[in-house]
Every structure is written in C-alpha cells, then in structure tokens.
Amino acid sequence: MVAIPKVCRAAPASNAGTVQYTIACREDYPVPEPKEGELLVKLNFCGVCQSDHHMMAGDWGIAPAAGVDCTGHEGAGVVAKLGPGVDPAKWKVGERVGITPVHWTCGDCEFCNNGHETICLKKQYVANVVNGTYTQYPIIHESWAIKLPDNVADEQAAPFMCSGGTAYTATKAAGAKPGNTVVVFGAGGGVGHMVTQFCKADGLTVIGIDVGEEKRAVAEHAGAAHFLDVTKISDADLPAAVRKLTPDGLGAHAAIVAAGNPKAYANAPGLLRPCGVVVAVGIPAAGTAIAGADPALVTFAGISIRGILVTSRADMVDALRYLADGKVKENVQVVPFAEFPETLAAVAASKTSGRKVVDFNS
Ligand SMILES: [Zn+2]
Ligand SMILES: [Zn+2]
What we know:
This protein has 362 residues and is of the alpha/beta class. It is built from ten helices and 19 strands. It folds into two domains: 7-148 and 331-359, Alpha-Beta Complex (Quinone Oxidoreductase, Chain A, domain 1); 165-307, Rossmann fold (3-Layer(aba) Sandwich), CATH 3.40.50. Helices cover 27% and strands 25% of the residues. The protein is globular and about 60 Å long. Residues 49, 51, 73-74, 162 line the site of one zinc ion.
C-alpha cells in the first residue's frame, strides 16, 4: 500500500505559458485522482530540464493547457493508485515507474505504425495536457509508463527518462559504425554527456564541442576523445579543427546537435565528411535557427539531417539496459525540494553542467 495524502509538494508556476512565469515551492498542492487508463504516481526524484523552461515560457509555440501549472517531464517513483480500467496484472501499487516526456500516443497513425511513435499526429505531452513532474503526485497514462529495472537508482532513472532515452535514439540515428568519428555539440550538457557515453559504448570516437572548462571536464569524463572549446576557437576555424582530428582528414561521420544553440546548427554541416548526418536534438527558441547555414553544402556533400524528438518506448527499454549494465551513467547533482526555483533558473540560463535532480523527500 502507498498511503495517499490529500495534498503534496509541488513547484507550480504563476503565469504559466508566458515568459513572465515564475515557480514557487508549495506543500499544499492537491493530489489528483487518476481517470480511465491513468496511473497516479508518487515521485521520489524529478529531473530539471531546460525544456521545462521552454514549456513554461511558451517560447516553442507549445503552451501548457489550461489548468496545467506544474511543468517537468522526467521522473522516477512508484505507482500510488490505478485509475479505472488499468489492468492490475500489468501495474501494481508500489511498483517502480518512470515518467518520460510523452503522455499518450494514438498507436494507430502512419507514424505510430512506422516506428516513429514520438511523432504521432495526436500525441500528448506530459506538462502540456497534464501536470508534469514538478508535483510529487503526477498522473500518467499507463501506456507510456515505463517499468524501471531493479538495479537502476531513482535519481539516475529520473533524468534518464528524458536525456538518456533521447541520447540513445540520437546516437542510433547518427548511423555511425564502430571506429567512426562523431561530433557532439553540447557534449558537457544534460543530453550531450549522455550522447557522448552512448557513442563511446558503441565504439565511436567523440569530438565534444562545448563552452568552457567545466563542460570540458564533463565531456571528457563522459568519454569524449577530443574537446573543442568554442570560447577558444572561431566558427570559421571549426571545420579545419574537426578534419584534423579525423584519421583520414575528411571530417566527422555525424554531428549530433545536443545544444539548443542556433550557432551549433549553423556550424554542424560544415564539420561532416561527404554523406555525413546531422542529428538535430537540441531545440533553440522557435524561429532562431535553421539546420545548416548553406543549402549548397548540404547538396554537394549529400548531407542528411535527421530530427529526434525524445524516445520511443522500445528505445527506452534498450537504453535502460545500457544504464542497468553500467555502460552509461547520468552526471547527476541531487538538490533539495526547497531549491527548485533557483535550480530551474540556473538550468534555463544554461549555467549548469550534467543533470540537476530534485529530491521530493528531502
Ligand atoms: Zn527533459
Ligand atoms: Zn499516432
């Protein structure tokens, strides 16, 4: 049994969906009742992601629905209550569960049927249609609830539900083979340090690109063989620097843009060898970037550009195996619940490295 209180901890926003939003810690946030097909979850940990900021600010053109004031889309905890219609053979109260950014997909459209369920035409996001993981008792649809392996800790699993799964799918999309070279933009960041680890686990050589010594340390710890600090090298010099680091001088096989920086997108195609792949993961504010500055470069070199939006349920199961086997690990810094607002502010301003995780039981 999980005893369910009437109110709980949460960090809801005022002015949700506008750039003026602010979040504040509360101890008296209402605990909801799960409806048909839903699970009520009691979270132990929740990741703080830069996407939370964009979702609450509404600057991606996706604003939270009316009544949704808790953002957050990555968490780990236990099932607290089954809604009507949930099969008790599938989910049990007290069972460990992870929450990913997706709340529900239709399972019946062209994209769901072709292995691209995160692009589902009817998909619903956590923190968009329902409150997200900034409340200790969120609701999720049972179809997207993720079972957590026994040997994965909650504070690892929470951020992994977003950054780990996304990083796994992005690494797969690069299509690189063991021995190939992959550039990772934002290699010291929340998604980038996971991409770097997945690449290393798959036998790829990573050239990490990021800003400053702190990010360098994270990227190198994650397994980047080389690091280029954009505060020390100009955009114009980047292509030559990357070519010099590839054994045959032709450039990288893929560039995974795990940074939400428009400049990373402008630079990525120029770092690739012919037929290279740009994997677009990081999302700058809407309308600030295009994937590749010069279409001629893309055309002449046969460059492909692939977009990755979070991860599918099947990929998440595969990705969790890397985590359970110790092949990858989130660089997690656990912060107490009371530090929620300043933590989000620091993440929103890109002033953190690795992954901040809030401990709801602190
Ligand atoms: Zn996230
Ligand atoms: Zn669909």
